[in-house]
Amino acid sequence: EESELISAIQKENEDPSTHGILIQLPLPSSIDTQIVIEAISPKKDVDGFHPFNVGRVATGVGGFPPCTPKGILRLLDEYGLDVRGKEVVIVGASRIAGRPTAELFLSRMATITVCHIETKDLAFHTRRAEILVVAVGRPGLITKEMISQGVVIVDVGVNRIIDSNNPRGFRVVGDVAPSCRERAYAWTPVPGGVGPMTVAMLLENTVIAAEASLTGITV
Question: Which CATH number goes with the domain that contains 169?
Answer without folding.
Answer: 3.40.50.720
